[in-house]
Amino acid sequence: MAKTERGYQPQAGFLQQKLNSLQEFNRAEMPQFTLHEYQPLLDSSDMSPQHWTDIAADILANYEKYDGFVVLHGTDTMAYTASALSFMLQDLGKPVIVTGSQIPLAEMRSDGHENLLNALYIAAFHPLAEVGLFFNHTLLRGNRASKVHATGFGAFASPNCAPLLKAGINIEMIEPAIAELHSRLPEFQPLQDKAVAVLTLYPGMDMGLAQYIISQPLDGLIIQTFGAGNAPQQLTLLNALADAHKRGVVVVNHTQCTHGGVNMGGYAGGHALRDCGLVSAGDMTLEATLTKLHTLLSRPGEREQVIREARRLMEVSLCGELS
After folding, report:
1. Res. 177 pLDDT band, cuts 50 70 90
2. Are 19 and 35 in contact (CB under 8 A)?
3. Which residues are known to be catalytic?
């Protein structure tokens, strides 16, 4: 990002120029790295599933040339990209670390120097065979991270999973990796153009509005519910959800709470949603729930089989693995 009259905007060639001027990135102890810059550069608010597919495809195309990969990304949708890459690159055997900064690298107090420096160093010398998100001295599991702070350096948290490591004076491993390092090409799951919507419930909501959204030609729908996965027991809502299930929409119950997860067996409101065919997002973040649903719906096969497997696999793993 470079400063302009309209605020910070991505500028082609700026990062390479900045890195060339920073001595710490050219020290003998640093791993060798290649900078690949996309054209055009995007603000992360403009990211889409197609861009996630492009990044994953580039990693796969260069998989044998490098020991690890660092993805530089804007913070606004960074957790979505980290989650998507974790689901798209199954059986990953090398580190993929997503990182960025709250203050752009061009500014004097930028946290980007330290985040990028540590991400490169960890990818080379403390590698984990999965997708991680590095920020503020902490490596989080990619599909467990969520942006929680708009202005603080501790912008990301992993509310229901311990960090993978902490980078202080020493680098401390905390959570074991999902898989072992290996050099085999990972299974690649490209994303298709699927219609997935998120509907957030709130007290006093017009259920006619909810009914209208649910009735759209969707492939997947995430309902942001209350508490442990509860919703108003109003027939307009319940009938609309049951009808969506019959149409083949994969409807997922995701709690609005940051910590904990969905338990549709605890209260009558949750039972009613289960009876309508909703499946549970467990304790996944919204970012992981959305990107996992996109990935499952993009799998090849007959429509009925894809729907059946998507409903089953949404509830399979708390770590967000598809297999």
Report:
1. confident
2. yes
3. 75
